[in-house]
Design a protein that fits this description.
With 190 residues, the chain is an alpha+beta fold. It has one domain: Gcn5-related N-acetyltransferase (GNAT) (Aminopeptidase), CATH 3.40.630. It has six helices and seven strands. A seven-stranded mixed beta sheet has the order 1-2-3-4-5-7-6, with helices on both faces. Strand 2 and strand 3 form a beta hairpin. Helix 1 packs antiparallel against helix 2. The longest helix has 16 residues. The radius of gyration is 16 Å and the shape is globular. The termini are close together.
């Protein structure tokens, strides 16, 4: 098993489309498309987002993650994470986070005790109480020592993206076609 940073544009779009579909569900309305468009149109353009995958021994993706830089450019936050069907790998998303935690200044946000426990098993060792019950975990490589020196993660305003879709039908159609094409061309191996 290994972690792959997906740099090829077509593969990155396909993996992002699959990740959005997995995270939001296949019947989630406009939310997966808005995230897909925002990540590609803003964060990828600014080189502030990366798609990574954990692949098995045959280079088949078994887990996907979207990593986004913080405002200072020193840390990365796991913004989305999904496991793909695999008989060969147990807890692939947890293993992906574990591999990333060993190598990168990683941040994760846990909204439940179950999520926090999974991230702890993946090697996220430092935890802080965030706003609205969110627990913020940092890998050993992350330079922040507490919430006061933890830079904000870059984000996109999905509501604005939906509004732009309503105003610009051609933009909506373009991202919709790219999203569908991505789902259809999801790579069997990386």
């Amino acid at each position: 098993m290994r972690v792959v940073n997906i740099k090829n544009e077509a593969q990155r779009e396909a993996c992002l489309a699959r990740l959005c579909a997995e995270v939001y569900g296949h019947q989630a309305g406009i939310a997966p498309l808005a995230t897909f468009a925002g990540v590609l149109g803003v964060l990828v353009e600014q080189e502030a987002a990366r798609m990574v995958a954990l692949v098995d021994g045959q280079s088949r993706p078994v887990a996907l993650a979207l990593l986004v830089l913080d405002e200072a450019g020193v840390g990365m936050t796991v913004m989305q994470l999904a496991e793909l069907a695999s008989d060969a790998v147990e807890a692939p998303a947890q293993r992906l986070v574990g591999e990333l935690a060993l190598r990168a200044p990683l941040r994760v946000d846990a909204v439940s005790e179950t999520q926090e426990a999974r991230f702890r098993r993946a090697g996220i060792t430092r935890w802080f109480q965030g706003q609205q019950g969110v627990r913020i975990g940092l890998s050993a490589k992350h330079p922040a020592t507490g919430l006061d020196d933890l830079p904000r993660t870059l984000t996109v305003d999905e509501g604005s993206i939906v509004q732009s879709f309503k105003q610009d039908r051609a933009l909506f159609d373009d991202y919709k076609q790219r999203f569908v094409r991505g789902l259809e061309s999801f790579p069997a191996s990386l």
